[in-house]
Amino acid sequence: MNDTVILFHGIARTKKSMEKLAGFLSGHGYRVVNVAYPSTKFSIEELVGFIRPEIEGVSADAGEGRVHFLGYSMGGLIIRALLKDYRPHNLGRVVMVGTPNNGSQVADFLRDWPLYRKLYGPAGQQLVTDQTAMIDLFGVVDYELGIIAGNRTIDPVSSLIIGLGVPNDGKVSVDSTRLDGATAHIVLPANHTFFPVNKTMWRQALSFFRDGRFLS
Prior knowledge:
Elements: E1 4-8, H1 19-27, E2 31-35, H2 44-61, E3 67-72, H3 74-85, E4 91-97, H4 105-110, H5 114-124, E5 145-150, H6 156-162, H7 174-177, E6 184-188, H8 199-211
Parallel strand pairs: 1-2, 1-3, 3-4, 4-5, 5-6
Helix pairs in contact: 2-3
């Protein structure tokens, strides 16, 4: 197999959080590039500029193979912004995991707290449910996209902020992960924090990269 998968970690994480997933995909024949970026220092559009040269290099090195993307949490938003203006000519399929495509009520609640602003930086301010300021940041989904959401939480406070009875993974509601144009959407009994090491997610992502659909 000549295909490549590029991994994007979430906000306030590092590429180390994606290493086990990288090993899994590598073991199934993919060339894996685990991207690192200073997620709490810049806005999403600035992060796209930061990673763009690496992505263009990976695309060129892929030759005849396709380049797939997987983004965890905010990593999925970076992918959306990247593909709007800098789509690789050999783009394959895209998987988003726990991505707040319609923002997070938790970010709404915390956005003005000094500690949140310090820890999560400019990009943290872009995770809110009011997406008005980001209309031009994300393009339409006209590529194969599989979305994986979770509905298990270990954070009762965040889940209360999201809303009583609203399915969520402790940080992001299931509905917030949805996106017009997506090829497939699946909900797993998974928690947001531990999504990167969730082996069921790994298998579902692999299925989508291989066949363009999730396992039933």
